[in-house]
Design brief:
Layout lengths: L1 H41 L14 H4 L9 H12 L9 E5 H9 L6 E9 L2 E9 L10 E6 L2 E4 L3 H8 L4 H7 L9 E5 H11 L7 E8 L14 E8 L15 E3 L1
Antiparallel strand pairs: 1-7, 2-3, 2-6, 3-4, 4-5, 6-9, 7-8
Helix pairs in contact: 4-7
Length: 255
């Protein structure tokens, strides 16, 4: 009986050893496959949801609304730079970790609204969390961009300065073929949250780049959106070239 018990113990130990070895081998294989896939993405285009299909992330992180083709971004940026209005900024850099935290801490809201502001004659951004798509700020939670992060602050005065008669909004509209000028860029809250989760799932994102542009006729969904100001969003990582990251769409323009 004692001999049988010893044999059983040896067999059980052998099984555990085999399982352990198989698990390590499987993990190593999966890790190498992951590295091969991420390496191929890094060597080509990164942060592209289409490239990441097959990892099974698309169920956890539904894709951002639309990839913006590089040519459309470049065309739009050229149009924006040509606007003869003083105080316009070509892009805004935003600390990714702080931005991600602000988004996650306001999960009770349905929409993220990015407002164009006039900060003492310079274009700036405000972020409002809201449960409506209106241009009314009274029920929204407000954050203002300051030194690459959104800080909780009422930006109503700067927003009013932007839309005042003869202000920056009117000056921009005079240069546009559209009958409307952008005051706010709207995103559904899940789109922003999922975008943050997706791009940081396998990569350490340092900052987000909000690159200002005017919508070209090739990209605009509606005729009246041609020439309107918006932005494209892309991640920034110091170890990657600009062309290795993808621009994502310009949201819904309001009004």
């Amino acid at each position: 009986m004692r001999k049988i018990n010893v044999i059983v113990i040896v067999l059980i130990s052998a099984v555990f050893l085999l399982v352990s070895c198989f698990s390590k081998l499987s993990a190593q294989i999966n890790g190498n496959m992951w590295k091969m896939k991420t390496d191929s993405i890094i060597n080509n285009k990164v942060i592209d949801f289409k490239s990441l299909k097959g990892f099974g992330f698309e169920k956890a992180f539904p894709p951002f609304e639309k990839v913006m083709p590089e040519q459309d971004v470049n065309d739009g940026r050229i149009l924006f730079v040509k606007i003869p209005v003083s105080g316009l900024k070509e892009e805004f850099l935003i600390d990714f970790v702080k931005f991600k935290n602000v988004i996650e801490n306001n999960s009770t809201f349905s929409f993220c609204k990015f407002y164009l502001l006039d900060d003492n004659g310079m274009l700036s951004l405000g972020l409002a969390f809201s449960n409506n798509q209106d241009l009314d700020l009274s029920k929204d939670v407000l954050f203002e961009l300051e030194k690459e992060e959104f800080v909780k602050r009422d930006f109503s005065a700067k927003r009013n300065r932007f839309i005042d008669a003869g202000g920056m909004k009117d000056q921009i509209q005079k240069q546009s073929s559209s009958s409307k000028a952008t005051e706010m860029i709207l995103f559904k809250y899940p789109s922003v949250r999922n975008y943050n989760g997706m791009i940081s799932h396998a990569f350490k994102i340092e900052k987000l780049r909000f690159r200002m542009l005017c919508l070209s006729k090739e990209y605009a969904k509606k005729v009246d959106d041609i020439g309107r100001v918006s932005f494209a969003v892309k991640p920034y990582m110091s170890n990657l070239k600009d062309e290795q990251t993808i621009d994502y769409n310009a949201g819904d323009l309001k009004p």
